[in-house]
């Protein structure tokens, strides 16, 4: 592979995207419809940076470094299998970009502590993981670090799931605050005018996937590995059939009018490509027109398997012996690309903060 530090997607006039995931294991179809589908689609139109937040993973799993390293490899394999192209996009391993840590420190000075603790993502994590008041000092810092993850690359857009939009608002606050304090941007200006008015940071806008929140196969909670209700991107046809088959609708017979707001029909709309077919299924099911849950589930299973089949084939290259080394080679090469951008951002930020004594060169 080439060791060039320039991103092949970096072309004049192409707006930039940054988004990513904390490595917690394999990705599922909820990730696909919520964000990854958008990432794959946007690679030809945007300069794309996709971040693996392995440092953030240590905020709750600091005693399990082997698991985090394994999950980094798993998530990259899923990205590559899903269609993220390392020739068109840059994969950013968070721990390999020191500018992110430095910007986290600077941004922490722009946010009151109580504002950080009101971050809805942070509050949700504390509650769902039962952390109480026993979380590490670094745990709330990760919410600030997420702002640095994004702003280090000065993106125009951040593809996110519906539940992440509220967190992005804190990042937008940091960008506005920095532009006002250090770049003399009028805080009353519209977000879109910040850069033309001299601001360093664009105010990044969220881009939510076509399905903001996909319910899991339990039919109740959002799809999640931890809740054991997920269909993974790497699942076999047999596994998909079993999981879709377990979806509960409460319907008693084929002649009973069915509920097309159910979790089953969310899957119909999310995965069956033909709008006319979706409409026909909705009409027949809602009338109780001699169509059973099993028939609907079979069509959903086939649609999901059609989606995941090519992903399984692409992933096979990285699951064979030596596949981990291929992934690590990509991450090492892309670290140089990522650092070229993040180091520029850090230097420009230091200039604005009157801290630009000299420009460093990383040994990449």
Short description:
With 364 residues, the chain is mainly α. It contains 13 helices and 5 strands.
Description of the molecule:
The chain is mainly alpha-helical and 364 residues long. The chain folds into two domains: 16-213 and 321-352, Rossmann fold (3-Layer(aba) Sandwich), CATH 3.40.50; 237-317, Orthogonal Bundle (Tyrosyl-Transfer RNA Synthetase). 51% of the residues lie in helices and 7% in strands. It is built from 13 helices and five strands. The protein has helices at 29-42, 54-61, 65-82, 98-108, 113-117, 120-128, 138-151, 165-183, 237-245, 263-271, 275-287, 293-319, 323-352; strands at 16-21, 47-52, 89-93, 157-160, 205-208. Strands 1-2-3 form a three-stranded parallel beta sheet. Strands 4-5 form a two-stranded parallel sheet. Helix 3 packs across helix 12 (293-319). The longest helix has 30 residues, at 323-352. It is globular.
Keywords:
364 residues, disordered N terminus, 2 domains, mainly alpha, Tyrosyl-Transfer RNA Synthetase, two-stranded parallel sheet, Rossmann fold
Helix content: 40-55%
List the strand order in the largest sheet: 1-2-3
CATH class of the largest domain: Alpha Beta
Number of separate domains: 2
Average pLDDT, all residues: 90
* Number of helical regions: 13
- What fraction of the residues are assigned to beta strands by DSSP? 5-15%
CATH homologous superfamily label of the largest domain: HUPs
Distance between the termini: 15 Å
Order of helices and strands: EHEHHEHHHHEHEHHHHH
CATH architecture of the largest domain: 3-Layer(aba) Sandwich
Q: Judging from the principal axes of the Cα atoms, what is the shape?
A: globular
Counted beta strands = 5
Uncertain residue segments: 1-5
The CATH topology assignment of the largest domain is Rossmann fold
Q: Given the helix and strand composition, which structural class is it?
A: mainly alpha
